[in-house]
Amino acid sequence: MRIVFALLIAGICFSQVQAEVQTKQVTYQDGDVTLEGFVAWDPAAISDPVPGILVVHQWMGQTEYERGRCKQLAELGYVAFALDIYGKGNRPANPQEAAKLSGTFKNNSALYRKRLNLGLQQLLSQKGVDAKRIAAIGYCFGGKGVLELARSGADVDGVVSFHGALDSPSPEDGENIKAKVLICHGADDPFVPAADIDAMKKEFNDAKVDWQMIYYSGAVHSFTQPMAGNDNSRGAAYNAKADHRSWVAMKAFFAELFE
């Protein structure tokens, strides 16, 4: 009996080890520019192909925050890939540098969309990804990014923007959108003008995009990011309740897309 019990315990321990999320860095190219992504997956979950989730970073570039989100998504049974818009080792040292670097891409939608689609290609190439079940999520700069990915005509099922910019620089591009859209937005976000939201809604409605938008009371910009602090008067701050609710909304959205 002791031997049998020991084997059972060993089997349980082995299955737990096998179920642990695994990660790796992935380098890829845009011409002469080397980009560095990050992929997370649960080996126990990908015996059959599973949905793939692209993660687009905020304006400080790919950080431990995005890598942590990838791990969370892997725990849900997805393969998650955090792309790199800026390039390997090219990380802003402060908000001023971040504003300048992110602005380079915001003002050059062709380059921005190219880097987004290169990241999507990397996700599709990962082991265990079902290429017919793909979504993208993004934060702040990346929240705008997933909308730009959709506007590029990318073949993805859905995109989720967390506290992203919501302007509509090229309304005609709404016609390219194939994805369903979920927007999670802080009701008190001072950095997203109401005029931008109205323009986005018009773009989506004119193009008959399947979209939904959730406002979170008491939340400002960056509400999912603990590193933003807790001072709403700065316009960007963490809000635990909004963070939790928006993650739950994302999971329900994915369930609709994939199940």
Overall description:
- With 259 residues, the protein is of the alpha/beta class.
- It contains seven helices and eight strands, in the order H-E-E-E-H-E-H-H-E-H-E-E-H-E-H.
- Strands 1-2-4-3-5-6-7-8 form an eight-stranded mixed β-sheet, sandwiched between helices.
- The longest helix is centred in the C-terminal third of the chain and has 19 residues, at 240-258.
- The protein is globular and about 45 Å long.
List the topology elements.
Elements: H1 2-18, E1 22-30, E2 33-41, E3 50-56, H2 64-75, E4 79-82, H3 95-106, H4 109-124, E5 129-139, H5 141-151, E6 158-162, E7 180-186, H6 194-206, E8 211-216, H7 240-258
Parallel strand pairs: 3-4, 3-5, 5-6, 6-7, 7-8
Antiparallel strand pairs: 1-2, 2-4
Helix pairs in contact: 4-5
